[in-house]
């Protein structure tokens, strides 16, 4: 578990710290958790690319996640994509 912001930043480009959470999200939305996963480009939040054309983006309590999530929703809508 990542407990402090320093750990968070150091682990943004690594899959292992996020794998369990990503698998939970995939299962919740009916996707296969055994699918191949790889990290997206490191940014503000961990983003995992899943082989079945799915992206899981995890939002952090260390940042103003709610403002960033709202911006993600608007960006997706402007490109005709939906978030679930």
Describe the structure.
The protein has 84 residues and is an alpha+beta fold. It has a domain at 5-59. The chain is built from three helices and three strands, in the order ααβββα. It has helices spanning 5-10, 19-28, 65-78, and strands at 37-39, 47-50, 54-57.
Give the topology, please.
Layout: H1 5-10, H2 19-28, E1 37-39, E2 47-50, E3 54-57, H3 65-78
Antiparallel strand pairs: 1-2, 2-3
Can you count the beta strands? 3
What would you call the shape?
A: globular
Structural class: alpha+beta
Rg on CA atoms, Å: 13 Å
Mean residue pLDDT: 79
Major beta sheet, specifics?
Answer: 3 strands, antiparallel
Terminal residue distance: 25 Å
Order of helices and strands: HHEEEH
Helix content: 25-40%
Strand content: 5-15%
* Tally of alpha and pi helices: 3
List unreliable stretches of 5+ residues. Answer: none
Strand order of the largest sheet: 1-2-3
List keywords for this structure.
84 residues, 3 helices
Give a quick precis of the structure.
This protein has 84 residues and is an alpha+beta fold. It is built from 3 helices and 3 strands. Helices cover 36% and strands 13% of the residues.
């Amino acid at each position: 578990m990542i407990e402090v912001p320093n750990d968070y930043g150091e682990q943004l480009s690594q899959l292992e710290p996020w794998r369990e959470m990503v698998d939970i999200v995939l299962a919740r939305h009916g996707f296969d958790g055994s699918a191949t996963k790889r990290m997206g480009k490191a940014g503000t939040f961990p983003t995992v690319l899943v082989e079945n054309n799915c992206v899981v983006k995890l939002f952090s309590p260390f940042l103003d996640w709610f403002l960033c999530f709202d911006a993600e929703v608007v960006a997706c809508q402007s490109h005709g994509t939906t978030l679930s």
